[in-house]
Each structure stands twice: as C-alpha cells, then as structure tokens.
Recover the amino acids of this structure.
C-alpha cells in the first residue's frame, strides 16, 4: 500500500514507542500472510520471523510468542525429516496449498468470513476506510481490499501515524479493528485449525492468526 503525501514528524512523540512497536509488529504479520520467496524453505522463512518477533516483544508487554515459536519449530522439524528422506517442499508450495490452489482450504479474503462472499459490502467498506485515511492499495498487490495482509498493513500505518502525533489515527485504527478484524480473526484461526488436519503447515497460521488477535486486543480471544 502507499500513502498520500502527508506532512508527518520524523520522530515518534514522547511516550508513543509502544505504538511504533505495535505498528512494526503488524507490518511483520502482514508480510507473514503474503506469499514467501519461491525458493525458501519454512526454516528460511521462520528464522527471520522469529528474530523479528523476539526483538519486538520487549516493547509490547504481555505479548505471548510461545505458540508461534512452537508451531514454527514443529514445521521446521517436519520439513527437515522430509528433506532427509529426499523430499520437503518449499514454503511457497505449502502456502499455495493452503491459500492459493482451488478449492482453497483457507481463504485470506476476510469478506468470506464476514458475509460469505467475495467483493461484498464489507470489502467496499474497507476500501472506503483506506481512502478516507489517504491510503490506497499498491498497484502491485493483485488482490481484493479485504485481504488479511492489506488490512494489517493499513492498521500498521495508522498506528505509525499515531506514534508520530496524528491525534485521530489511533482511534481510526481501533475502530477499524473492532469493525472488521475482530469479526474475522476467530474465523480465520478456526479455518486454519480445521485445515491443519490435512495440511500440517496450517498450524503455523493458527498461531499467527491468534497473535494478530492478541496484538489488536480481540475481546473474543480466550
């Protein structure tokens, strides 16, 4: 996504480091829900992700990374066992089995969870929120505005603005999360959990979906 030209201070205002940390975490999670580089194994993908999350954790008290770390470690061990037996797919192949190859076991288009269809009113409402905030989807991103990664990046931008002094950005982020992300977060987590019975790699995204919900204070998270 790309922002319209706005004048923003270049240094976070005092006391708002936690907002910047939350923004960084949401940027990281947005990337985790996008297709990985074609030649990477899950281990290539997991290590920088764990490093980034671990680095951010001290700035976000109460953030629980254990589920994510355990899921990534289990998936790396599964891949290593397959590799020793002469197999082992790239992480893009595993990602594609889950999210791209029809009939997809799990969709990353949140409108399906919100209203059971693609391109419905919720998708148009999200697009209107992006436009109201002066943010528009990157032309290189070939998906609908309700894609999970697009929503997380949008929230990251809003929290980043809030940390730099935009008085309205945090309220806008919290309203967007309450209206949309809290409504689909549990359904995405459950869809990934169901898929994991046939696609073990989905367990990684169960943990990541839970981390999204935790980061944004989903009241339905238990």
């Amino acid at each position: 996504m790309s922002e319209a030209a706005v004048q923003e201070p270049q240094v976070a205002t005092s006391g708002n480091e936690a907002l910047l940390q939350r923004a960084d975490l949401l940027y990281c999670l947005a990337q985790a829900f996008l297709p990985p580089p074609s030649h990477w194994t899950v281990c290539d993908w997991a290590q920088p992700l764990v490093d980034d999350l671990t680095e951010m954790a001290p700035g976000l008290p109460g953030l629980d990374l254990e589920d994510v770390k355990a899921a990534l470690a289990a998936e790396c061990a599964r891949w290593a066992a397959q590799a020793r037996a002469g197999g082992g797919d790239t992480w893009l192949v595993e990602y594609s089995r889950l999210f791209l190859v029809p009939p997809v076991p799990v969709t990353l288009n949140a409108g399906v969870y919100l209203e059971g269809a693609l391109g419905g009113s919720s998708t148009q409402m999200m697009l209107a929120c992006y436009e109201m905030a002066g943010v528009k989807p990157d032309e290189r991103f070939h998906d609908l505005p309700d894609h999970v990664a697009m929503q997380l990046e949008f929230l990251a931008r809003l929290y980043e603005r809030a940390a730099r002094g935009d008085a309205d950005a945090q309220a806008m982020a919290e309203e967007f999360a309450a209206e949309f992300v809290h409504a689909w977060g549990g359904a995405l987590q459950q869809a990934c959990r169901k898929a994991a019975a046939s696609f073990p790699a989905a367990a990684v995204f169960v943990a990541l979906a839970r981390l999204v919900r935790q980061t944004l204070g989903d009241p339905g998270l238990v």
